[in-house]
Design a protein that fits this description.
This protein is α/β, with parallel strands linked by helices. The protein has two domains: about 110 residues, Rossmann fold, CATH 3.40.50; about 55 residues, no CATH class. About 25% of the residues lie in helices and about 35% in strands. The chain contains five helices and eleven strands; from the N terminus they run E-H-E-H-H-E-H-E-E-H-E-E-E-E-E-E. The longest helix is centred in the first third of the chain and has 14 residues. The chain is elongated, with a radius of gyration of 19 Å. It starts with 5 loop residues before the first strand and ends with a strand.
Length: about 180
Amino acid sequence: MRTKTIGLIAHAEKPGVANLARNVIREFTARAHPVIVENETAKIAKAKAGGTIAQVAKRSDLIVVLGGDGTIMHIVTMAGKNLKPIFGINVGSLGFLTCVNSSAYREAIDAISSGRISYSKRSLLSVELRTNKRVLSRVHALNDAVISRGDLSRLIKLDAKVNGEALTEFNADGLIIANPTG
């Protein structure tokens, strides 16, 4: 599959990511790919801002992420229903979800531009937290969702359902729901 429009989102606080973002924008532009740059990424790269994470995701064919696994997981949650395929360029130490290290960004852009990348599908969690009939929170997650009382550790009664079907009822101080990525 050939990708046309690239969404670019970076972890703005990572050392060296501003220069990498500028280089990635330049390389994709040279290959005639429009690049939509997320607002915070645009600030550090001194580029034209293209919107929030959700807006960039909605307008892109592929989201290129400059960061690590945490950045990718954050983008999945923020993009929500607008999520597109993600290509992660690792800026840091260890990245299980990223595709290449930052030193190989040119080779990655060549592969993306020429359509020589394949996509792997991962399951997402869609988690809805309710009290009685009221929805308190609804999120998508790539690897896990944690439900807890926060800093105050007290037992809470949980009625867990999967796809609307009762799973179990229990008292606990929290719940971690994970998929195969998690």
